[in-house]
Task: structure prediction
Amino acid sequence: MATQIDDQRIIEFDVRTDEMLVNMGPQHPSTHGVLRLVLRTDGEIVSEVTPHLGYLHRCAEKIGENLTPRQWIPYTDRMDYLAGMNMNLGWALCVEKLLQHDLSEKAKHLRVIICEMGRIASHLVGMGAYGLDLGTFSPFLYAFRERERILDLFEEVCGARLTYSYITPGGATADLPKGWLQKCEQFLDQFQPIIAEYHALLTTNAIFIKRTCDIGVLTPEMAIDFGCTGPVLRGSGVDYDLRRDGEERYTEMYDGYAFEVICQKDGHYPKDHQYPAVPKDAVLGDCWHRFYVRMLEVIQSMDLVRQAMDRYSVASGDWGVPIKLATKLPPGDVYLETEAPRGQMGFYLVSNGGNIPWRVRARSSSFCNLSVCPEICKGVPIADIPAIVGSLDIVMGEIDR
Amino acid sequence: MAGGDGLLSKLKSKFGDQIVGANLEAIDPWIEISPDALVEVSRFVRDDAALKLEMLNCITAVDWLEVDPKKAAKAGFEPHLEMVYHLSSISKRHTLVLKVKLPRWKDGVEGEAPECPSVSSVWSTADWHERETYDLSGVIFTGHPNLRRILCPEDWVGYPLRKDYQMPLEYHGIRGR
Amino acid sequence: MAEFINSFLFPDQPDHWIGVLITALIHVVMIINVIAVGALVFIWMERKVSGRIQDRLGPTRVGGKFGWLQTLADGLKLVAKEDITPGQADSFLFKLAPYLSFTASFCAFIALPFASGYSWSSGWAAREVNTGVFFVLAVLGLEVFGVILAGYASGSKWSLFGGMREAAQVVSYEVPLGLCVIIPVMLAGSMNLVTIGDMQEGLFTNWFLFHDPFTFCVFWVYFTCAMASVNRAPFDLAEAESELVAGFHTEYSGLRWSIFFMAEYGSMFLVSALAAILFFGGWNGPFPVFATLASALGWEAWPTTGLLGYVAGLAGVANILFKGVVGVTVMIWVRWTLPRLRIDQVITMCWKYCVPIAAVCFAGALFWQYNNIWFLNSLHPARSRAEVRENWSVNELQLLTPSALHEVGESDMAKGIENEAGGQI
Result:
């Protein structure tokens, strides 16, 4: 049950308390970086939340106006630094859209493998950090144990563990090394049974359920109105995933793949018999559902990686050749959104015919997801603020850009 | 593009001269509207049963100004500011781009930010996007509930994403260069 | 002991104050060592256990193997840290708070017996208090003042929240904790911890945990409440690092901060040892080794005084330490497994679950005891020294009708006063 004070006068006249302004962040353990929330509190109840951003602002968009598209790729890594591969993909596809550059089948499957692995790695952190927000430390390290193995795989592919700059306009910087697919397969086989542990420690844990069910309920209308995307939107029961509903240039990557959008339809999740049941206290759009969607997406991504590996190993063509550094960009403007782990990551590229873009714009998913926070954090206890903000799974590098 | 070719004529018949231009051949087809009609058009495209553009993905301000005076002559455009609104519909699965042209400075006075009506009453997400645009590109959104800088500090001077922006040499004792 | 010392210093004045002072100092030093060394071990253990739980190694280097000196190294670091008092803080109260917390934790140890002493009159406690349970709980409850004071005096809003939460939580949990503790007290018919421990002599089936199903239930309630009252996760709301930064000790650094931790680990051990005495037979092992040995050797009983008595006493100390450490380990295990509850859920749990369950268990245990219904305790009833010492006979105990209870109570009281007057320190 969410504790909400419906009638403010009760506090006003019966208890006679003063309101207090509390700064949560920018140096606070559970604000996921340098987010600063100014809380107006009345005892333990928060009556107003004002987020203050910009502590990590680097004006990446301005930098993008001075670099060629390929040179800007490392800057996209540093946006959602937990899912650098997916950021690379968004920008690469955007540039390819402007250049009208088409990829071989093999390159597309390669991108699916890499991006879905990136999604797993990112959701693992999201899951572990959410446990941390709720006061349990161990799942965080379990998540990192698995994430490390994905990072090892990525390191083999591109030499970097955090800022990959691997997917570039035109394909990727290198092909997958020999034997990588077997290692990846091995990882997936070992990882699959471990997910039950996470469900036991978090998803189905009684205290976890108490802390997340019916907390921070986000209605589908509100989610759409505030531009929330990704697991936050799907956690509210909106059946929308750019991998299926996005632009042709993006969805063709997933052509022929068997997958269902993870969201609750008609009261149940797809294939929900395999996963823990939804607790009866949970309300669609609460923190628990947002978390659950992420957990199911991990499993879904594993499935997609397996499918992509099968296709990749038999696909014909080249793995893709990066465009030349000084490729002239045709005049015009393109906007393309991809389904990054945290939501829809959009890049807007305006060119006036030179080899550097005239204007670059990054639409970050966390930015929009966070903007709903003042709405759903009204009237909750302080302890629920980390629970709600954590369930939005924000990354400040992406918000402040 | 949302509504197909019929959309433009539909909008034109409803809003007349307020629809200033369009490019349906571009990779992302766009429709340009005059600033005065922005809120009405936005509300229309959000609520129209055939369009249902419930989601505002992004608001961008593009500063069209050639700083280099040698190139300025053949740049091919007059200095102006272009607002780009990317909309999409979740139920209909289509997108639309709206553009609005603004002067670079209000009444041609350097430093006076131009005004544009706020669409935050139509899409709540516009609240933060417009704050960001105000912060970085210098557009004042009339009717915005809380138009403050969002990424830069509140006392920052200038609009960094303008083409003629000069990085301050010093900010509270911190060297800028 | 005072008499013993005075017999060297002032043979004609057995109650001379110097002897009493020296005795007190010896006790204090010993208890401080128990707490400090205990904290040293428990912090190391916490790191090691949490490490293993989380697929890590934990400390491995300091002190050679297993990093067993890690806490000492941490302590040295903490001592070397700058002692900061925030400008906003109330300097005097800010400095007072950790000591207050520690003092409360420390004082509770005074009445905690580590073994029954194996003489008919005294336990191995710094000061055997005949209302030991009451004393320990009351003094332990004072620890909250230090925390509230720290929260209030730090001049930080997070600390204030932590202090407020602590006040609400600990004051609430005193109630079910008291209710749980009353059950063994009722079964033993005494508040003296030594008596309660001695009552559970013999085979492990004689432990109060196995007295009846209700005591078995109430132990878990006790353990939950004990964790809540010493601020361990999932009830660590006063520090709640993901919500309140670090709660009441946000502004503390260096040694002052570590004093809070000594108090916390001290209390953890204290409530675990208390659980051991109340429910797990205290210093009595699961099998009566020394009694069996004595009968095997053909003795009537194991000597309770002299060297052999001390051997038995030390075995008892080892027993209770082991049980206490197990309790602490379980607390550590729980901390690294469960998420934290919210403050309203913690209070709800206290008033809506713990208090009613404890109350029902109290009534049930009373019923069981009154009707003398068979349960595991009846398997191998042992003649308890406590009965001899407290001047009860086995027959009287079995016929605990209300009137008999009244008589026993009176004679017990008289004996108690006599004991107290005799005064051994």
Q: What stands out?
A: Residues 17-53 of chain C form the longest helix (37 residues). DSSP finds 16 helices and no strands in chain C.
